[in-house]
Amino acid sequence: MKNKIPTISITAICLLALIILSSGIQSEKGGKMQQKYYYCEYCGHRFPSVRLLTSAPCVRHPDGPNKGRHKLYEGTEKSEYTCKYCGRKFPSIMLMTAAPCVNHPKGPNKGNHSPAL
Question: Which of 30, 51, 54, 72 has the smallest CB count inside 10 Å?
């Protein structure tokens, strides 16, 4: 007689794997688990989930401070970010979006730098 694996335990294993994969833990690096972060394109703040990012008001929203929600930056996490208007490089999105850009579409220094994907 063959041994059968109960379907309940397979279902439980699949559910546990799904929970681990969706928790935001990205990969193991140096023995430690790394958390994946999501960044706002307007202000550069980082959040542990897209849900938290899109539910909070943004102080650097184009419509005015706190007049809109954060926007998900869809590029990858990098060591250096480039402004899509002028090409200047910055070490973080937060520093980039805090400074005015001389080549901004609204006019020189009438808007902040924006990260290129």
Answer: 30
